[in-house]
Amino acid sequence: MRYLPNILSVSRIFLAILLLFVALHYDVILPTYVDKNWVNYLSCLIFCVASLTDFFDGYIAREYHLHSRFGEVFDPLADKMLILSGFIALLVLQRASPWAVFLILSREFFITGLRVMVAGSGQSVAASTSGKYKTGAQIAAIAFLLADFFPGGEVLLWLAVALTLYSGADYTIKYIKSVHV
C-alpha cells in the first residue's frame, strides 16, 4: 500500500504515452474495417482511466499519509504529461483551438516555475479550490473532444481556458502575498 500512489503516478505517465500513440497511430493498431469512432472512444477511455489514477493517487496518499519526495515530483509531472498528451493529440486531430491549448499550457509552465521558486525559498503556497476546478474542466474538455461525440467540446475547452487563467492568477497572487508577508 505504501507505494500505491507512486505506482499510480508512474502508470499515468505510461497511459499518457499510450494515449498519444493510440490517437496518432490508430492506423497501425486497428484494421482498416474498424470504424474510426472506436479510436476516439478508446482514446477517451485511456484518458479517463489515466485521469482517475490522478484522483486515486492523491486520495490514497492523503488518506493513509503516504507522502514521498518521489510523489511530490512525479505526481505533478505525470499530470502535466497526461494533459500535454491529450492536447497534442487534439491539436494533431484538429479538434482543439491552438490558442486555447497555448493559453492553458503557458499557464501550466508559468505556475510550475512559480512552484519551483516557492520550493526553493522553503515556503509553501497551498493549492486552491480554483486549481481543482481548473483540472476538472481541462479533463472534461479533453475527454469530450477526444471522444468527438459531443458538440459542446469546444465550449468546455474555452471554459477550461477561463478557469485555468483564473486559477493561475489566484496562485500568483497567493505567491506574491507569501513573499511580501
Automatic annotation (TrEMBL):
Subcellular location: Membrane
Entry GO terms, CC: membrane
Pfam families assigned to the protein according to its UniProt record, in alphabetical order: CDP-OH_P_transf (PF01066)
Reactions listed under catalytic activity: a CDP-1,2-diacyl-sn-glycerol + sn-glycerol 3-phosphate = a 1,2-diacyl-sn-glycero-3-phospho-(1'-sn-glycero-3'-phosphate) + CMP + H(+)
Cross-referenced InterPro entries: CDP-alcohol_PTase-I, CDP-OH_P_trans, CDP-OH_PTrfase_TM_dom, CDP_ALCOHOL_P_TRANSF_CS, Phosphatidylglycerol_P_synth
Pathway: Phospholipid metabolism; phosphatidylglycerol biosynthesis; phosphatidylglycerol from CDP-diacylglycerol: step 1/2
Transmembrane segments: 7-26, 38-56, 77-93, 139-161
A GO molecular-function descriptor: CDP-diacylglycerol-glycerol-3-phosphate 3-phosphatidyltransferase activity
Entry keyword set: Lipid biosynthesis, Lipid metabolism, Membrane, Phospholipid biosynthesis, Phospholipid metabolism, Transferase, Transmembrane, Transmembrane helix
Keyword Hydrolase: no
Top EC group: transferase
This enzyme's EC code(s): 2.7.8.5
Annotated membrane topology: Multi-pass membrane protein
NCBIfam families attached to this UniProt entry: pgsA
Protein name (record): CDP-diacylglycerol--glycerol-3-phosphate 3-phosphatidyltransferase
Organism name: Helicobacter jaachi
Gene (name only): pgsA
